[in-house]
Amino acid sequence: MRIKAWFGRIGKFFREVRAELRKVTWPGRKELVTSTLVVLFVVAVSTAYIGVIDYAFSRVLAALIR
Predict the structure, then answer these.
(1) What's the average model confidence in pLDDT over 14-29?
(2) C-alpha–C-alpha distance, residues 43 and 47, integer Å
(3) Sign of the CA dihedral running 45, 48, 49, 50
(4) pTM, rounded to two decimals
(5) Gap between the Cα atoms of 59 and 49, Å rounded
(6) What does the mean pLDDT of the chain come to?
(7) Cα–Cα dist 11/5, whole Å
(8) Residue 1: pLDDT band with limits 50, 70, 90
(9) Does an H or E element contain 14, and which?
(10) CB contact burial 29-65 (16+ within 10 A = b; e otherwise)
(11) Which single residue of 31, 38, 49, 60 could bond 27 by disulfide (Cβ 3.0 to 4.6 Å)?
(12) What percent of the chain is predicted at pLDDT more than 90?
């Protein structure tokens, strides 16, 4: 009996997931491309910033160790 209840809960879960996914407002292609480009730009800028800070700290630390 437990197995039947377990499968019933799994079925209910997937029905609820499907119902929620129907409520989602999916982005259009233009919005998706724009958002992706913004994310890539922010990641690139953040990476460059952290790289510069890391380089500066490593140079300062190397100078202090000498």
Answers:
(1) 95
(2) 6
(3) positive
(4) 0.63
(5) 16
(6) 94
(7) 10
(8) low
(9) helix 2-23
(10) eeeeeeeeeeeeeeeeeeeeeeeeeeeeeeeeeeeee
(11) 31
(12) 86
